[in-house]
Specification:
Layout (H helix, E strand, L loop, with lengths): L1 H33 L5 H14 L3 H17 L3 H17 L3 H18 L2 H17 L3 H18 L2 H18 L2 H6 L1
Helix pairs in contact: 1-2, 2-3, 2-4, 3-4, 4-5, 4-6, 5-6, 6-7, 6-8, 7-8
């Protein structure tokens, strides 16, 4: 009996999270219809993020391209920075790390000028992950350190924890335990 209750609770939780995610997407799609062309890049970025989170790369790619086009056309630097970040994320999912890094570097450059500290923290972290994946630990470390700084400026505690964890991973992989303790 107890196992059945847990099983039913698990099924309910999965169903509820699916409904919540679907409602979020439906809300964004409705917002798209009501938003002016000049403001749609932000909505397209959010829709792309939904699809990226759900590993639906083809749909994500469509919305990223729309966001990029509108952000360029209407000179929306903030949205352009987000769109390049999303493009980098998409390329990571597609295992094209060289192009992913280039897009993320564009995002970083733009986000430095817009004051998007949380977004900058995320882009810096992703570049660090790419470099770490290539075995370039020393090059990755400053990205994680700067990611932490930007996350702290934004009050983005999850980003701070992620950056610290990534630094700890490098110290662990390189055997620099004493350096980890000093930090």
């Amino acid at each position: 009996m107890y196992v059945k209750k847990i099983y039913l609770l698990l099924i309910f939780s999965i169903f509820a999270s699916f409904l919540y995610a679907q409602n979020a997407l439906d809300s964004l799609l409705q917002k798209e219809k009501k938003t002016s062309e000049a403001q749609k890049a932000a909505v397209y970025n959010k829709i792309a993020e939904y699809y990226l989170t759900n590993n639906q790369t083809q749909e994500a790619g469509r919305y990223i391209q729309k966001a990029l086009s509108l952000a360029i056309e209407y000179k929306k630097d903030y949205d352009l920075g987000v769109a390049y970040h999303n493009q980098g994320w998409l390329l990571v999912l597609q295992n094209d790390m060289v192009k992913a890094k280039k897009n993320l570097e564009k995002s970083i450059s733009i986000k430095r000028t817009t004051g998007d500290h949380e977004g900058l923290a995320k882009s810096l972290n992703r570049v660090g992950i790419i470099l770490q994946g290539w075995g370039k630990m020393e090059e990755a470390m400053p990205y994680y350190e700067n990611s932490y700084i930007e996350a702290e400026k934004a009050g983005y505690t999850r980003g701070m924890a992620i950056a610290i964890n990534q630094q700890a991973n490098i110290y662990n992989l390189t055997g620099k335990y004493e350096d980890a303790i000093k930090k």
